[in-house]
Every structure is written in structure tokens, then in C-alpha cells.
Specification:
This protein is an alpha+beta fold. The chain has helices at residues 12-30, 35-58, 66-78, 81-96, 129-138, 163-184, 212-219, 243-252, 267-281, 307-324, 342-347, 401-419, and strands spanning 101-110, 116-121, 146-155, 222-226, 231-232, 237-238, 286-292, 295-302, 328-337, 361-370, 375-384, 390-392, 396-397. The strands form 2 sheets. Strands 6, 7, 8, 9, 10, 11, 12 and 13 form an 8-stranded antiparallel beta sheet that branches. A 5-stranded antiparallel beta sheet has the order 2-1-3-4-5, with helices on one face. 29% of the residues are buried. Bound molecules: zinc ion (2 copies).
């Protein structure tokens, strides 16, 4: 059987220009530490982002239903800070002057889940970690916790957005627009050839999810250092669902129905799966499932060294929440729990994380939170038998406190996204 031929691109000018933008975005990223080249690349990328819509409009006579769906895009673009910035910046670049670019380093100091501080500092691009630490100590940052350094390019006219994030967001909106144009012709992919850069393909997105390659490239520009010295390199491992593997797993674990509703509604289903796996395997990894509505948009396997690396990994999940436009998160994993001591109850604090305590108890937890504030959490206590067998007790519906900390970076991000209108 020969595969169906790929249809020709119905809007080749606009689509090719969109692919140019993708390639140019990577050039912008690569020139991040070279101010002049960065400006040069930005000056080419921004007008091209603008041109995608123009090239599409030129073909409006031949695109089905153009008058129906294009005004919808125009309406959403008119209320988007980023799309308005693209239009204005294009005019500034081509008619008046350069954008007013500012370069700085954002330092995020995190002591624990609840204590964090952010500030702006100017570091030489190639400063060594000990030199940076010394500067931070001199500025009164205590030698505990971690510091994340992010180099930032910002346009004065768009102060809340780092420019790689801003252009990546504009690209996502345009990619969805070009996808809509293809859908108007009844197709979802076309024959435009891929470029030499592996990720620059003619694939289009039907949602506002930012490209994974752009997400990854941006996260490469930040450094996590321990305030007591050393660099952290922990990251969440990408975990793609493979239907075949899911089937294999289903056979291995018996009748497991994969939960398919929204994050909060899926908590009991995920707990049932986790208990089965735990009783069969005697252990369970930690996973983060990100949702947009009822659709799962990303899954990550999480592995932590110490408490600090756990915090940094959840900061990374918050980045992914923004890139994938997730509005719901489910965390599944094996963890430790311990009863608060009388002193802790009295002072309303926790002196030691449960994992560090002698009276700790092993449990499976599944908890979910959505951007609109709905949440659910189930805990199942794990009992180990003498012969190595594992039993998971009937799940308990508990207060959200236990999972609250790990959700702090995600909640902060949703609040920040709200502020930036996304
Ligand atoms: Zn096309
Ligand atoms: Zn790419």
C-alpha cells in the first residue's frame, strides 16, 4: 500500500515565511551573548513575524471561509500585548529606529518553597560561578538555598517579557493561524520541505503551545547554582506516551484504564493505577502530567537529589506550564509523610521535611490543581511485608497541605501569566 500523497501547500508564501521565523528564532537564541548580532537577528525576525499575516491576507480571495475565521484571529491579536508589540515594533524597526534593547541578569534566589526573592543584576556574560557567588554574598544574599541566573534581553516597550519568550509566543499564535488556513482547505499537513535545521519542519500547531525546541533552548540560558557552591544540573526528563508501551503496561498490570478526564477528575483513576503499579513493582516514580482543559499536553518524569533540586525541578515545571499553556497539573509519586510534632503545630511550621525524619511513613500521593483553583488529593499508605511484598492501603481524601509546596512555583507562574495577559 502506498501512503496517501501529501497535499501541496495551499498558502506557500505565508507558510514558508513562518518557517523562516522559526529558523530565525534559533539564530536569535544563538546570538544571545553577542549584542550586535542579537539586535541584527531581532530586526529581521520581527518584520517577518508581521509579514506572515500579510502574506495570508493577500490570498484571502482563494482561502475558504477567510471572512469567518480571520476576523477571529484579528480580534484575539488586538487584545494580545505580544501581537500589538509585533506590529508596533515592525513599524519602529523599518521606519524609525532600533528597538530599545536592555540586557540584564535576573537572579532568583530560593531559600525554600515559600521564601524567594528576585532581583536584577548586571553580570558579565562569562563570569564564573565563584565570582557570581561572591557578588551575591557581598550583596547580602544568605549562603543558603539556590540562585538561578537568567540572562535577559528586554525591549523597553515590553518590559515584562524576555524577548525569546515574546517572539516564541508570537510564533505560536502565527503557527496556529497558518494551521487554521490549512484546515480551511481540509488539510493538516502539506508538502513544504523541511529545512536543514532538524526542528524546522512544515508541521503546524492547532493550539497555542510553544515549540518544544524553543522551550528547551530558553531553559539552556539559565544556570542554577547552590548558594554554598556548585552548579545544579537537574532537569525533568521528557516522557512521551507511546500507545504501544501503554498497551504492554496494561497487559503487565492487568485491567488498567488510563484516566481521560480533566486533572482533578483524574485523581482517583491515577491513584488506582499507581497502587497497582506499586503493589506489583514495589516502587513508583514521580511524574508530572500537564493539562490544557482535558487534554494532556506534557508528561515529565521527575527525579530529585536533595530538597533544593526538587524545588528547581518544580521551577522547571512552572516554565513548562507556561510553554504548553497548561491550566491543570497532576503530580503522582511515592513520598514520605510524618505527623507534625506538638511544637510544630504550636508554631505552625515544619522544622524538618518528612523525608528526613525518623517517624516518616511511606505513601503514594496523587494530587491535582487547576489554574482556576480546583484541587484534589489522595494518599495511600504503603505497607511493606516481611517477604518484600508491598500493600497499598485504601486511599484517603486528605487536605491539600501535603502537596501544597510543590505547587507554589506553578501558582506563582499562573499569577505572572495573568499579569502578562496569557
Ligand atoms: Zn503549508
Ligand atoms: Zn526549532
Amino acid at each position: 500500500m502506498t501512503p496517501d500523497p501529501v497535499p501541496p501547500c495551499p498558502v506557500p508564501d505565508a507558510h514558508r515565511r513562518l518557517m523562516d521565523c522559526h529558523a530565525q528564532w534559533h539564530l536569535l537564541h544563538e546570538s544571545y551573548y553577542d549584542p550586535d548580532v542579537f539586535r541584527l537577528n531581532l530586526n529581521s525576525l520581527v518584520p517577518n513575524l508581521r509579514n506572515v499575516t500579510w502574506l495570508l491576507q493577500k490570498r484571502k480571495a482563494v482561502i475558504p471561509d477567510f471572512e469567518t475565521w480571520y476576523p477571529q484571529f484579528q480580534q484575539s491579536a488586538a487584545s494580545s500585548e505580544i501581537m500589538k508589540w509585533v506590529v508596533k515594533s515592525r513599524n519602529r524597526i523599518t521606519k524609525e529606529s532600533d528597538l530599545e534593547l536592555l540586557s540584564s541578569s535576573r537572579v532568583v534566589w530560593i531559600r525554600d518553597w515559600l521564601q524567594r526573592a528576585e532581583g536584577t543584576a548586571s553580570f558579565e556574560p562569562r563570569k564564573t560561578t565563584p565570582e557570581i557567588l561572591l557578588t551575591l554574598y557581598r550583596n547580602g544574599v544568605p549562603p543558603v538555598g539556590t540562585a538561578t541566573l537568567k540572562r535577559r534581553w528586554v525591549d523597553k516597550a515590553l518590559p515584562d517579557w524576555e524577548l525569546l519568550a515574546a517572539t516564541s509566543e508570537a510564533y505560536a499564535r502565527l503557527s496556529q493561524l497558518v494551521w487554521t488556513a490549512h484546515r480551511a482547505f481540509g488539510i493538516e499537513r502539506c508538502d513544504l520541505p523541511d529545512r536543514s535545521t532538524e526542528c524546522v519542519t512544515s508541521a503546524l500547531a492547532d493550539s497555542l503551545v510553544r515549540l518544544p525546541c524553543m522551550h528547551l533552548a530558553q531553559s539552556e540560558l539559565q544556570t542554577h547554582i547552590s548558594m554554598s557552591g556548585g552548579v545544579y544540573e537537574e532537569e525533568a526528563k521528557r516522557f512521551d506516551f507511546d500507545p504501544e508501551k501503554m498497551e504492554e503496561a496494561a497487559v503487565r498490570y492487568g485491567e488498567l484504564a488510563y484516566p481521560v478526564s480533566g486533572p482533578v477528575e483524574n485523581v482517583p483513576g491515577f491513584m488506582a493505577m499507581a497502587r497497582t503499579m506499586m503493589e506489583r513493582d514495589g516502587s513508583h516514580g514521580t511524574f508530572a502530567f500537564l493539562y490544557s482543559g482535558q487534554q494532556q499536553v506534557a508528561v515529565r518524569a521527575l527525579q530529585f537529589g536533595d530538597q533544593q533540586s526538587k524545588i528547581l525541578i518544580f521551577e522547571g515545571i512552572a516554565d513548562l506550564v507556561e510553554s504548553t499553556r497548561a491550566d491543570g497539573v497532576v503530580i503522582i509519586g511515592e513520598s514520605w509523610t510524618a505527623l507534625q510534632t506538638e511544637k510544630e503545630k504550636e508554631l505552625k511550621t515544619v522544622f524538618f521535611p518528612a523525608r528526613d525524619r525518623l517517624d516518616r511513613m511511606e505513601c503514594l500521593t496523587v494530587y491535582a490543581l487547576t489554574r482556576d483553583g480546583r484541587h484534589a488529593e489522595l494518599v495511600s499508605m504503603v505497607e511493606r511485608g516481611e517477604n518484600g511484598e508491598t500493600r497499598c492501603a485504601e486511599p484517603m481524601d486528605v487536605s491539600f497541605e501535603a502537596g501544597m509546596n510543590t505547587m507554589v512555583p506553578i501558582k506563582l507562574r499562573w499569577a505572572d501569566m495573568q499579569k502578562r495577559g496569557i
